[in-house]
Amino acid sequence: MSSALLAIGRRRTTAERRRDRERDIIRATRELFDERGTIDAQIDDIAKRVGINKALIYRHFAGKEELFALTLVDYLGELDERLDAVDGPRRAPMNRLRALSEVFVDFCLEYPAFADCAMSLLRRTGEELFGEITEPVMTKLGTAMGTALERISVILRAGQKSGVFDEVDTDYLANHLYTQTLGAMHMARMGLIVSSNSPGHPVVHHADIDTVRSTAITATLATAVGRKALTSTRRSTSRKAGDNP
């Protein structure tokens, strides 16, 4: 075998080892996320879990934010598999959206670190993200998010065509529903709600997880219906008012 072919073989083997190590690092990061949450997952702990020096992590990833972004890509890949398993094009759009919303909410409850990681990225501007994350990783993240969001957009378009959903830009609305649900799941993550029995005396209560779950799903469906529900309500109110003497 020529030296050129041997060199190609060695390069291929090195590339494969690099990909395997990157997968191991992402897998360890996700394990620590699920065990401790994103805040308590440190690079030192990730390196120990993989069995490498932490300096090697920075040879594979531009920084902690990039590693976390790729871990989010891993979560999103599993989420999309679950969404695909319950989605059915022949079902009514409202039922399809409900099924996807239930899966999304339950995924967030099962993996609180996923919601934390997703919310953390949403707090950054695009300029900040590009300053912390390389373009190839941003492309992977965008593709993973886009796959899940497009699945929702397709259902919203079907619902608009059948007249059950509001005529709003579906790409915008899919992003809105994604963010809206993450916000509700943060309430479940914190497990707290605040009220006031009297001015200046706030009271902290425990948030019932089942209530947060059902409200989040209902809010998704209500937002999709949007102004159509308001129009229907106004018509119903007008008819009732007309019946009164």
TrEMBL record:
Keyword annotations of the record: DNA-binding, Repressor, Transcription, Transcription regulation
UniProt xrefs under Gene3D superfamilies: Tetracycline Repressor, domain 2 (1.10.357.10)
A Pfam family hit: TetR_N
Keyword Repressor: yes
Keyword Transcription regulation included in the entry's annotation: yes
InterPro entries given in the database record: Homeodomain-like_sf, HTH-type_TetR-like_transc_reg, HTH_TetR, Tet_transcr_reg_TetR-rel_C_sf
Residues annotated to bind DNA: 42-61
Domain of life: Bacteria
HTH tetR-type domain boundaries: 19-79
Protein name: HTH tetR-type domain-containing protein
